[in-house]
Design a protein that fits this description.
It contains 10 helices and 9 strands. The protein has 261 residues and is α/β, with parallel strands linked by helices. It has 2 domains: 157 residues, NAD(P)-binding Rossmann-like Domain (Rossmann fold, 3-Layer(aba) Sandwich); 92 residues, N-(1-d-carboxylethyl)-l-norvaline Dehydrogenase, domain 2 (Orthogonal Bundle). The strands form 2 sheets. A 5-stranded mixed sheet has the order 3-4-5-8-9, sandwiched between helices. A 4-stranded mixed sheet has the order 2-1-7-6, with no helix packed on it. A hairpin with a 3-residue loop joins strand 6 and strand 7. Helix 3 runs parallel beside helix 4. The relative contact order is 0.11. Pfam families: Octopine_DH. This is Octopine dehydrogenase. One of its GO terms (molecular function) is oxidoreductase activity.
Length: 261
């Protein structure tokens, strides 16, 4: 990334909900793969990498963490909290863990390391905050809100289990299976669409998976009444909550996903 960016500014083409675009240019203060240079002095560390890469980054930053650091998974995906507690060692015992349910924006790379397009922000985004004895140097949620901007509106879920059970984390496997289960191995004549190409079979799978997660949350709350699991909602309801201004057809889950711009 450092070589690709060179002496240039990083460019973000941000599309607002009203259709206008804002061009944002900036340069990172530091681009490095050396955690001994990047981590000391940091009191807010945000993970924006895929879940498979979390372990490597946790192990890399662990020796250099300072007390009362806030660790953010944006998104976290199920198990982020457990992995954080397991891998950050002594330095992580006073770290707060913030786990977000999803990404704040839909993005596409324009030129690697040089330009990215933000297709639009979500309306809301929930997180779970586990303080673990942390005494942060700043108000956690409002500071993260300041970092990402005015949208999406950040909210706090009742508990971290709700974040782990939210259906957004299991969207891709049913969609991938439904898209490719009958593929004969031959090259396609055109690139298949993912969300916009959602078929009825995949949509039914998504509905069943989401319903199972909601029922699981209800069963947990029934057995443990003090556990508020009402943040776990069906994927269709999640789309209507987070993309209400971006969906053209809300007649069904499939159409909501296909027409979400």
């Amino acid at each position: 990334w450092r070589k690709t960016l060179g002496n240039n500014h990083f460019v973000v083409n941000f599309r607002e909900k009203n259709g206008t675009n804002e061009i944002i240019t900036s340069r990172p203060n530091m681009i490095t793969n050396d955690p001994s240079k990047a981590v000391p002095g940091c009191n807010l560390i945000i993970f924006t990498v895929p879940a498979f890469a979390h372990e490597g980054y946790f192990k890399a930053i662990a020796p250099y963490l300072e007390p009362n650091t806030v660790i953010v998974g944006l998104p976290s995906q199920p198990g982020f909290q457990f992995q954080c507690c397991d891998l950050l060692g002594l330095g992580g015992r006073t770290c707060a863990i913030v786990s977000f349910e999803s990404l704040p924006w839909a993005c596409r790379i324009g030129t690697f390391g040089r330009e990215v397009q933000v297709l639009g922000p979500k309306d809301t985004l929930a997180c779970a905050i586990i303080m673990r004895g942390c005494r942060p140097l700043f108000p956690v949620l409002s500071t993260i809100q300041y970092v990402i901007g005015k949208e999406p509106k950040l909210t706090v879920a009742a508990n971290y289990l709700s974040i782990n059970l939210l259906a957004d984390s299991v969207v891709h496997p049913p969609m991938m299976y439904g898209t490719w289960k009958d593929w004969n191995g031959e090259p396609l004549t055109e690139k298949p669409l993912f969300y916009q190409g959602l078929n009825e079979f995949s949509a039914n799978l998504l509905d069943k998976v989401s319903t199972e997660l909601v029922n699981t949350a209800k069963a947990i709350q029934q057995k443990y009444p003090d556990m508020d699991m009402t943040d776990v909602i069906h994927l269709f309801d999640w789309y209507k909550l987070n993309y209400k201004e971006s969906i053209a057809d809300m007649s069904s889950l499939r159409m909501a996903m296909k027409t979400c711009s």
